[in-house]
Amino acid sequence: MTDTKKQKKDEERPESASEQDGSQVAAVESDLDALKSACETLKAQSAEYLDSLQRERASFANYKKRVDQDNALVYDNALADLIKAFLPVVDDLERALKNSPSDPETDPWISGIALILQKLMKTLEAKGVSVLNVQPGDAFDPAVHEAVTHEENPVFSDSQVIEVVQNGYKLKDRVIRPALVRVAK
Fold it and tell me: What is the set of domains in the chain, with CATH numbers?
C-alpha cells in the first residue's frame, strides 16, 4: 500500500472510532437516564410501601389495644356477675352476726361466723370489690343508692339517708350493687 492510502485508512479509523465512542456514550447516557428513571420509580414505590406498612402497623397496634380493652371489660363484667352471686351470702352472714344470741356458749360459733365473713371479704377485696361507704346523713345519690322508702324524719333533712338497709358494693370504680337506703323527705 502506498502512503496516501495508508494515511486515508488511518484518518478513517479515528473518525469511525470517534463515531463509535460517541454512539457508545449516547447509549450509556440513554441507559443511565433509564436507570435513573427506574431508580426514582423504585424509590417512590419503596416510600409508598413503607407508608403502607407503617399505617398497617399503627392499625394493628390500635386493634390490639381495642381487643385488650374489650377483653378486660368482658373479664370485669364476668367477675361482677360472679361476685353478685356471693353478695347475698355476705348479707346473710352480716345479719347472723348482728342477731347473734347472747349466750356465752355460742361465742365460739359467733367467732367462727365472723372469721368466715372476714375471709370472704378479704377474698372479695383481693378481686377489687369494696363496700360503698354510706352513712346516715349522707345526701341521697341515685348512682350509688337505691331508695327503699321515702319517709318523714325530724332529724334528717330532705333527701338525706336515714338508714342503710343493705350495703352496696363496687368493683374497682363501678357500682355492682347500689346500697339500699331509707331516705328522708
Answer: 129-185 (2.30.22.10)
pLDDT, average across residues 25-41 = 91
pTM above 0.85, yes or no: no
Secondary structure class of 56 (helix, strand, coil): helix
Q: How far is CA 80 from the centre of its chain?
A: 18
Residue 154 DSSP code: S
| Residue whose C-alpha is closest to residue 180's, from 111, 75, 87, 49 | 87
* Pairing of β 174-177 and β 169-171: antiparallel
Q: What is the pLDDT of residue 129?
A: 95
Task: For residue 2, give the amino acid letter.
Answer: T
Q: Which three cell numbers stand for residue 18?
A: 470517534
58: left (phi over 0), alpha (psi -120 to 50) or beta: alpha
